[in-house]
Amino acid sequence: MDTTWKLVMLSCLLLSFFASSSAQTCRGQRFFDNRQYASCTDLPALNCYLHWTYDQAAGTLDVAFRHTGTTDSRWSAWGLNPSGARMQGTQALVAFVNSSGVAQAFTTSIDTMSPSMQSSPLRFEVPSLSARFDNNEMTIFAVMRISDTWLSTSQVWQEGPVSNGQLGVHPFTAANLGSAGSVNFLTGQSGGSSSAGSRARRRNVHGVLNTVSWGILMPLGAITARYMKVFKSADPAWFYLHVACQTSAYAVGVAGWATGIRLGSDSPGVTHNPHRNIGIALFCLATLQVFALLLRPNKDHKYRLYWNIYHHSVGYTVIILSIINIFEGFDILQPEDHWERIFIGILIFLGVVATLLEAFTWYVVLRRKKKRSDKHPHSINGANGYGDRGQQV
Ligand SMILES: *[C@@H]1O[C@H](CO)[C@@H](O)[C@H](O)[C@H]1NC(C)=O
């Protein structure tokens, strides 16, 4: 009893410790020389914080941008962009740990979607600039001489890898694409951008629609067709189930596909070619399958065999390509790990079910065959069991 209470108290303590440390805000942050800033804000993505003091008389903005939970092999950047909450046009301060093991800061004006990340002057003066890296926190300190037009504008921040002293392209996770918003240095208002937020939402919708339709419903529909038709009593129910499953998968899948095309056209300069190309191929193949349904020859038509071969090969290709493309999508979106694990779990479950059903149907088919050949010992090769693999509906 005594130990139970101790355990409960200990876990409460631990929980509150984690809760308070994860609720850490810019207010609790300190600087190496105990310098103070008039205002601060928790930026809504990438564990970043902005502290500043605006001196109206001098026309200077003194800022400290802090990126926590990073490493010495990543760069951190923050900047202002009067043309909107986006990368192009950003007047950026960048910092990384250089080959001497020292935090180095420089300014760069980002004019293209594939910036060189080389030092270049900004549209305003930066009389003082430095950076510090400790405890996996990068902090950029700068004094910027800005005119009034820069006081209420958009801010953009970002982080990415550094290898051999070269600053690499930032990742394309939802957080890395949502790290932009507005800022007002006079009122202290700062926030995420609603357009970045809605894009993150659309990316999630895209992921869910496509995973459910192409990744789960379609394999389920194929399993229905392959394993239900062996039972004479399930004919023609399996056919309607299969058609219902695949047409709803197709409808949801096309909606998901359209969100993908829209995302692609809304993100100029960001192309995920393999994912996009496989997506387009999938749409064409799946549409072909819908026509296959309409152009299906009769069961005993002489072309039915060719139709079956075509329908099955396109069907299995669609399923394999869909699964590949969903994993490509996971790589791009980088949702929390458990989503990918859940999808892998569902795939394993479907695989196990399919394997068991495969074994079971072979057992049923062989037993039927045996029964028949016992009844008609001279027609072993002539008679087919119901649902023989060679007989297609
Ligand atoms: C690293 O950065 C420090 C501070 O900016 C600078 O003095 C030093 O020269 C840099 N080292 C290299 C190798 O660039």
Automatic annotation (TrEMBL):
PROSITE patterns, A to Z: CYTOCHROME_B561, DOMON
Record keywords: Electron transport, Heme, Iron, Membrane, Metal-binding, Signal, Transmembrane, Transmembrane helix, Transport
Binding sites annotated in the UniProt record for heme b: 206, 242, 275, 311
Residues covered by the DOMON domain: 46-160
GO CC annotation terms, alphabetical: membrane
Subcellular localization(s) per the UniProt record: Membrane
Molecular function terms, GO-annotated: metal ion binding
Major place of residence: membrane
Annotated region described as Disordered, given as residue ranges: 374-393
Domain Cytochrome b561: 166-366
Cofactor(s) listed in the protein's UniProt record: heme b
Topology term for the membrane: Multi-pass membrane protein
SMART domains: B561
The record's free-text note on cofactor binding: Binds 2 heme b groups non-covalently.
Highest taxon in the source lineage: Eukaryota
Residue spans crossing the bilayer: 207-225, 237-258, 278-295, 307-327, 342-366
Gene3D superfamilies: 1.20.120.1770
Comp. bias intervals (Gly residues): 384-393
Signal peptide region: 1-23
Function: May act as a catecholamine-responsive trans-membrane electron transporter.
Full protein name: Cytochrome b561 and DOMON domain-containing protein
Organism (species): Hibiscus trionum
Native organism taxonomy: Eukaryota, Viridiplantae, Streptophyta, Embryophyta, Tracheophyta
